[in-house]
Task: structure prediction
Amino acid sequence: MNRLGRWTIPMLLTGTLMLGGGVFAWGQGGNPPASTTESGTTSGHGMTAVEQTYGRDAEEQIKSLHEQGRQAALKDDASFLETHLANQYLEVGADGRLRTKAEALKDLKSGNVKYEAISERDVKVNTFGNNAAVVNSTASIKGRIEGKPVNGEYRATSMYVKERGHWREVAFQLTPMTNESK
Result:
């Protein structure tokens, strides 16, 4: 075989594997792993450009919904929360008590839970695919639960899932910060 002929078949095979074989690998999760901007860590699976764009859109949707939920809690707006909390919603409030959606709404409507101020900072949204997101923040809270003052610094975690095309909050937890954790 002449020099050109000897390299023609390996080059064609390499091109076929790189172009054709790569398509199959991308469809099976073989694309480079996605990373988060906050941590620089990878999610363990690749994301297409469309998924990455959607992830940013989902992040903005969650930020907006989360802020609307904060405003609703301050205004005792139970109707907003009725719509945007999942039926399976559970929360661990500032008093450490576990509440269902029905209990949380009842406490808000009755005035058992009353927020005077909720100031969040360091809000971070992490999306997981197109249907789940977790929001972590630090919050200064001033209010009352069953007449007892609740004031202080807390770490807050909210989890959202997409149900039938709409984001719903499914879980919420407040954890008091100690002097060491501030």
Observations:
- Residues 49-74 form the longest helix (26 residues).
- Confidence is low (pLDDT under 50) at residues 6-53.
- The first strand starts at residue 33 and ends at 35.
- The chain has one domain: 49-181.
